[in-house]
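User: Sequence in, structure out. Go.
Assistant: Echoing your sequence, followed by the C-alpha cells.
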Amino acid sequence: MLSKRPDGELGPRYTIVYTMPGPNNEADEIRQDLYPYATPSPVTYVASGQQYFTTERTVGGWYVASRTLRNDLVAAGLPANPPQPGDGGGGVRWGVIGAALGSAAVCVLGILCALLVRSRRRSDPAPA
C-alpha cells in the first residue's frame, strides 16, 4: 500500500463497486478505482472513510498490483491497449471483465481489510 498516488501515467480509470452485506439486511458499497494500463503495473485506489458494516470505515490508499493482473484482464476481454477517446470503449465485454475484476479485486479488498484491522489494533486502548 502507498499513501500517495504513484508517479507516472495511470491511463484510463475503471471503477469497481463492491456491495457489502451488512447488519439488518443493509448493503454498503465500497468503490475502488482500477487503472489497468498504468505502467509498469496496474494500480488501484480506495478512498479512505467509506463506511461499511455500519461503523467500519476504509483505510484507503493506493495499491500497485502485480503485472499479471493486466494479463488476466486482457485474457478476460480487456483490450491489450488502452481505448482511445471516441472509440466507444474498445469493445470491452463488461460482464466477463466484471467477473475477472471481482476475482482479482477480492485480493486487494483483503489487503485493505487487513490494514483496517491493523490500524484498529494500534488505536485500541491497552487492557487495564
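User: And one key feature?
Assistant: Residues 40 and 67 are 7 Å apart (CA to CA).
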